[in-house]
Amino acid sequence: MFKKFDEKESVSGTQQLKSSVQKGIRHKLIESFPSLGDYLEKILPKKDAFRIVKCHEHVELLVRSDGELLFFRQRDGPWMPTLKLLHKYPFMLPWMQVDKGAIRFILSGANIMCPGLTSPGAKMSKVDQNTVVAVMAEGKQHALCVGLTSLSAEDIAKTNKGIEKGMKEVTSPPGNHDEDTVYFGRMWS
């Protein structure tokens, strides 16, 4: 999604949102991330005029007035938190854990297949299909990326063979940045 992100070329416009639209987005975020309820005022204050940055390929970024990127989505899909936000509030998403062998492939942009989520070092939360999840790695403290499940955890455990994708939309970051900067979906080192 963000493999070749260049702000000058990839951004097609910025839109200041009306208060009614902001209220609707806040409501969707509370609905999508119920554990974030008490912290949403800190993340997106009611008095803050946040905006949407529209990018190519129907990607929308939710940006606070101070310029901090918070959430993103593609088309009318679910809002997904940036990795930076997920690292601040790690409890906001259910998680899936992959084993150590999958780390370099995920960071290189590979999809996560069912066997990668059911191997000995992997663990799964009980989630439904099309759920936004934090992808963790065995032995690591922070999330590697944010993903959207293509199957429920139960179906992933049943399938456990072949190339059936356990997750779609494993997100990746825009452009080059240093190791202290964490953007959209994947943290690169």
Automatic annotation (TrEMBL):
Q: Which InterPro entries match?
A: MCT-1/Tma20 (IPR016437), Pre-PUA (IPR041366), PUA (IPR002478), PUA-like_sf (IPR015947), Uncharacterised_CHP00451 (IPR004521)
GO BP terms, alphabetized: formation of translation preinitiation complex; translation reinitiation
What are its GO cellular component terms?
Answer: cytoplasm
What one GO molecular function would you report for this record? RNA binding
Coiled-coil regions listed: none
Localization: Cytoplasm
Q: Which residues form the PUA domain?
A: 94-172
Q: Which residue ranges traverse the bilayer?
A: none
Give the Pfam families listed for this entry: Pre-PUA (PF17832), PUA (PF01472)
Q: Which UniProt keywords apply?
A: Cytoplasm
Alphabetical list of SMART domains matching this protein: PUA (SM00359)
- Which Gene3D superfamilies would you find in this protein's record? 3.10.400.20
Annotated family: Belongs to the MCTS1 family.
Name of this protein = PUA domain-containing protein
